[in-house]
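Q: A reviewer asked whether we had any structural model of the full assembly, not just the individual parts. We don't, so I'm hoping you can provide one. Inputs are below.
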Amino acid sequence: MSSVVTSAPTLLFLRRLFRRKLVLLAAVILVIAFALALLAPWLSPFDPASMRMARRLRPPGEVNWFGTDELGRDVFSRVIWGARASLGIGLAVVVISISIGAALGLVAGYFKRADAVIMRLVDALMSLPDILLAIFLVAVLGASAGNVVLALAIVYTPRVVRVIRASTLVVRELPFVEAARALGVSIWRILFVHVLLNVASPLLVQATFIFAYAVLAEAGLSFLGAGVPPETPTWGTMIASGQQYAEDAFWVVGFPGVAIVLVALSLQIVGDGLRDMLDPKLRKAL
Amino acid sequence: MTAPLLAIEDLAVSFRTEEGEVTPVRGVSLQISENETVAVVGESGSGKSVTSFATMGLLPRPAGRVSQGRILFRRRSGDTIDLATAPRATMQALRGAEIAMIFQEPMTSLNPVLTVGEQIAEAVRLHLGYDRRKAWAHAVEMLGLVEIPDAARRASDYPHHMSGGMRQRVMIALALSCRPALLIADEPTTALDVTIQAQVLTLLDRLRRELGMGVLFITHNLGVVAEIADRVTVMYAGEVVESAPVRDLFNAPRHPYTRALLECMPSRAIQDASGRRVVRSIPGQVSRVERGCAFAPRCADATPACSVEAPMLESDAGRQTRCLRWRELA
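A: Here is a predicted structure for the entire assembly that you could use as a starting point for your response.
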């Protein structure tokens, strides 16, 4: 009974969201990208690491759909294994920065004293250029996938804090917060249940944008050599190692490049679509 | 005579502001027994809501504090505690369980993203320790109690599915879900249209009798007071100016302010055929009153003495009045 009541608005919401064909297309691309990433071990025709110098820099063809790279590795296999790494890193960054950012944002929005401390810290972090801060952090921590996640999470958490703090400032003044207090609900429960649910929309929108930025930033960092070690296939490392052959063999950097653009663009489009749906309070029906 | 359920004694509440400390509630006393409705009447800024928030322990921190007096509340266990000095944890356990509150704004006093059943169940699980299923059943039962038709189905509705009157019923169900001994109703019908107002008042009165609650009913609407209250306390500029059983107050108001309020009621004006009387000028600003009677600047019966000497709250025949001239004016 209750599932019928709750699923109807969700369906309605999705139907409205996908009424824009571009958003639908972007969502389909993302689903395909995630499916390829998840199924990479079963879908990839070749071992992404196996080198065959006899077949190096082959153009796309029947055997190697996306061609081979400078070490004779299958580009298609590496692109879908790279999706695993790139999307995995992006997702991890999103999860970490959203959870820490939401917690700090809620606390900053509710408690005035914590606000002063947290927001100065956020201002300090945001005054540094993203990519420089990330490079610095990776340089200090050491280049590994885990440290790239950590560095990017530190870079993007302040954005989440700002957005959630601003929303919390609005929501905390709504009478239902006072009403919940009058019922003896603790401040922490009010913050992390009642207020959090009411700031879920901006949080969701932020998550999609941060995902897009993180995928791009990971590629950028790896390209600059301040990211994932080159032996791990990510879209960034593929472009980094293939760049010197780009003129003669476009496919070595072309396919991972297209993959980055498609995924980042799709995430942004879906994020925009969500924001248009959720931001004007008209769509409260959720 | 047993001690009253709630006894506010000589309460003063102060707020720190940029212009120094203001005291919007000064020396307020009132008592509520079980199964009794006490109305607190006054215009905006008279301190009636501040009094109720002080009782709930919900004064905005750190600016507001109880600066004088006691708020004695008799707990279910029989102990009497002073709510003004009770530790935070005690207050949190009391709120919702033994003292509950309903608010003026039924449209926004419910969380828009939780179903009404979930919101009631939350309070019940918190205070009564019920499990999920039992709490939900209790929520449905409470919705039935406040006369929401088809309660089992409506429990999974979100607040925006409901009308203002329905939501105020949900608020009442929420407030009463843990059977509190004291209910504070802060202008619960102000935002509702007149027919719904009457329904909600009747419902509140019925539940008060069934549950034997004490009700502190805050309003500026004397018509509502006449319908629901046993006793009335009239507040002006942070002070009690008159307190009396409802019938006495309406039949023979003693304080000029009470009289002016009664004369403002439209039905009265028509009956008297004397035209409505208007209470002159703006409400007394709390911080400006330095000496004399706070109401003197607006009082039609004021004498020069009124703006010099501050009247005391005088008791007589079960009523209290704060006016220098009440005997001669009566």
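A: Points you may want to mention in the reply: The two ends of chain B are 31 Å apart (CA to CA). Chain B touches chain A at residues 56, 58, 92-97, 100-101, 103, 105, 108-114, 122-123, 126-127, 153, 156-157, 160, 171, 174-175 (CB under 8 Å).
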